[in-house]
Amino acid sequence: MAVGARLGSLLRFPFGARKPEPGALSRIKAWTRDALALPSEATLSVNEISCTDPSCPGTETVILVLCRGERTRAYKVAKAMDAVTEPDLRAALV
Questions:
Q1: Does the reported pTM lie above 0.85?
Q2: Rounded to whole angstroms, how far apart are CA atoms 83 and 39?
Q3: CA–CA dist 72, 12 (Å, integer)
């Protein structure tokens, strides 16, 4: 990682990675399960990533949907996890 990228990360999050607000993860998972009508055995992985590359949107939320016997599906919302709204999520799932 370039020195500038590390410095930028330190200036944004001086005490390590930013933690999303409590409840954001469960909200996004519930909205995803509802919107995609997922079976209870489906596994969801929701992560917030920060990209320092100028061509990246910055912080984005990535949702992975894993169902046995199917390819993993990935969806992205170009917002921090706690800023994602249900309409944002539904737009990403189409």
A1: no
A2: 26
A3: 32
